[in-house]
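Hi there,

I know you've been waiting on this one. I reran it after we fixed the sequence typo, so this is the corrected version. Both the input and the resulting structure follow.
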Amino acid sequence: QVQLVESGGGLVQAGGSLRLSCAASGSFFSINTMGWYRQAPGKQRALVATMTTGGFTNYADSVEGRFTISRDNAKNTVYLQMNSLKPEDTAVYYCNVRRSTLPSYAYWGQGTQVTVSS
């Protein structure tokens, strides 16, 4: 079982920055991929960025060049540095961890609100 604790959301003006953190704890086989997804009102949850244990990253086109994902494998923690924030980045941001190899699993955090004012 994996417990995820997210932090770092809040209210920021357009052009500002925020840094999200997500720490995984509990008893589990090693995580393969850690990442962030977001869900805006009336929209489906969508990928923001993911990072594998080996450092391979994947970003949504809308955040490429503005957001940076990083992780501390020893601490089972993933970060999302968000710069040049736009009002359209407003959403609930969810941390996700998964393991693709057996025994596989996937867990979601409780979500943290990010609001960008214009």
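Quick highlight: Residues 32 and 99 are 5 Å apart (CA to CA).

Best,
R. S.
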